[in-house]
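Hi L.,

As promised, Large ribosomal subunit protein bL32:
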Amino acid sequence: MAVPKRKMSRSNTRHRRARWKATTPALVPVTVDGVSYLVPQRLVKAYERGLLRPEG
């Protein structure tokens, strides 16, 4: 495991953490029972197999 050689200042730590941003998932159209829904791409197969129920 990497261990820092010197203590990082509070200012540098917060500056580094502030750069990280979450991104919204890419939505893909999926047709379930004749109705089209926008779902995250990683969940398309689950919706097609009926493992998840679309909301709405």
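The longest helix spans residues 10-18.

Thanks again for sending the construct details.

K.
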